[in-house]
Amino acid sequence: NYYNGRLAVVESRLNGYDTPILLNDAGKVTEGWGNCLFIVRNGVPIAPPFSAGVLESITRDTIIQLCSEKPLEAAVRRALERIRGAHGIVVLSADHPDRLGVEGGDVERQ
Asked: For residue 12, what are the contacts with CB-CB under 8 A and spacing of at least 6?
């Protein structure tokens, strides 16, 4: 809900991060607060499925569609259990197009 998301934003900023990455009740990575999340492994953008608790998003759908039209393939995996070992993380929001974040290299636990 909105209140939990705001708490996540406050906590992430207090710990030096720009935006939180949220987990579902099972501890699986779902999305950011107010934005969609993709991880990149071996050049393939991977998004969690709706069954993980991800909200429907025009931005998310557009990225998946664009990737399917290009040589890239957007994979919708059963759940993103962890992001460690990803080659990158992409956080997108239609409300804040200037807040595109991509981390290069292997993503390690901070």
From this structure: 18, 19, 20
Q: Which of 30, 38, 17 is nearest to 102 (CA)?
A: 38
Give the CA angle between residues 41, 56, 70 to the nearest 5°.
Answer: 45
CA–CA separation, 108 and 36 (whole Å): 20
- pTM here is 0.72
- At position 42, the amino acid (one-letter code) is N
For residues 26-49, average pLDDT: 85
Give the per-residue pLDDT at 96: 58
Residue 42 Cα to chain centre, angstroms: 16
Distances (CA, A) of 41 to 28, 32, 88: 17, 18, 7
